[in-house]
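Notes from hallway chat w/ T.B., transcribed later so I don't forget. T.B. wanted the structure written out for a chain they're using in a teaching module, and asked if we could keep both sequence and structure tokens in one place. Agreed to drop them here.
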Amino acid sequence: MTSIAEVIGWKFNHQPGMTTKDGVITELPGDTPSQADQDKWTAEYKTWKAAMDEILRLEGLETPRRLAESVLTDEGKAWLTANRDLIAAERAKL
């Protein structure tokens, strides 16, 4: 379950003056956003979070051994190129 605190922190760069309690926004500079806005931001956050989690997983696969293989062998180069293509596809979702 994604909390609204995570969502508004992401959406508004953790600016001061934002608070939540029990999954409800209690303070936000300006007007409290509508439920429709909150739902939209939550969906955007989930998409962003899933893409970032996958990027970090893929980047973690690029170990020193894999990077050395990409220089030394054609298979290693092909693997690295394919992995970088996957990372680029995830970044396109952001």
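Follow-up for T.B.: The two ends are 21 Å apart (CA to CA). Might be a good example for the class.
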